[in-house]
Model the fold of this input.
Amino acid sequence: MSYAVEQNEKFAAYASPERLVSTEWLAAALQSGALSDGNLVVVESDEDVLLYETGHIPGSVKIDWHTDLNDDVTRDYVDGEAFAALAAAKGISRDTTVVIYGDKSNWWAAYALWVFTLFGHEDVRLLDGGRDKWIAEGRDLTTERTSPAPGDYPVMERNDAPIRAFKDDVLAHFGKPLIDVRSPEEYTGQRTHMPAYPEEGALRGGHIPTAASIPWARAAAPDGTYRSREELEALYLGEAGLTAGDDVVAYCRIGERSSHTWFALKYLLGFDTVRNYDGSWTEWGNAVRVPIAKGTERGTVPA
Amino acid sequence: MSTHDLPAALAEIVDDFQALTEPDRLQLLLEFSRELPELPDRLKDHPELLEQVVECQSPLFLTIETEKNDAGPADAVRLYFKAPPEAPTTRGFAGVLHEGLDGLSAAEILAVPDDMPELLGLTRAITPLRMRGMTAMLGRIKRKVAATSRLAS
Done:
């Protein structure tokens, strides 16, 4: 059913090496015609809704984080029916190995992978280094439209609880570790959105009390790949102060950057219980009477 | 609002978008992103002369210049944009505004309705969040044009 796990020294050190593939692995898989039988589907997921059209990995399909994965009325993800229709249209069946890649160190690709995981898709992996590394290595791109044979995808009920935290879950989580992955300016409350990004409307600035500040991109090397196990441990066990077995919640502004960190904590460092709080700062910074800490100090557990 | 309120070139672009289905509108936006002219060298070497539109999701910089128009009654406003190739949606918007507004008079540009981007019929296909960047881009152009024409008068 699924493709063999890639064996290499870097991945072997991670808790779940089967969640990553390298550009070499993918190039070899494509070379051997892996896309022809529907067992492997490559998905591109970017911030810009048109980037895929400017050139993509041959045979890959596009899934847009906003138009495809979010419900367009309720602030929520699509339901099981819509997800099944989306997956089938992209040539994905329930037992397909899905490899996701994207721009900006896989920021949006990790978000798409997290949504696939809400539906319990078993074999979904990230292309380590994403779109930029693939291009930097001079590998093939095409603007040719991919027309996959429809997949066969069952309607699965989304199972949010294991990996998704809501505001009330976060309020009940105090005393256990939180990771804030936004920029230092957002963490301290100096600003409520990313530098040079649109203001998405938060009335208050700052962070959730006790959250450690580890901006998401620190988990990525300059080539967009995930940092080594050792480096990630220094970051999250050392600097953030997590200990093995911790129940962790990560958040950012709308839950996309924290998906990248969620992936690192869950699959690379092996924390069993890691949840992404996708309401994140656009909810917390507007919610009435929730505790907020300002400045560089983490703050204390609210009484 | 209808295309009657728009300058001819912009009205034509809006008509082109409206005549298409949603997927084809995205293709057309992509074509505009490819046609966005490069910055002239004098601006390329002076990034400080450009202003960033922070509301756009991807980095977009723009500036305007006024050109004496010997042929007509009013000076022509020239528009210059810079956006990276990894941001085709942003580049596409810039391309639409360039083709629709470049060379018009300050008065003509200031008369363009602020919500003109909605007329392109892209809101659903690219989401309201991304449309905000386009509206902000037009707003920034109009603010700069207004400031420049105040100085000149």
About this structure: The first strand of chain A starts at residue 20 and ends at 21.
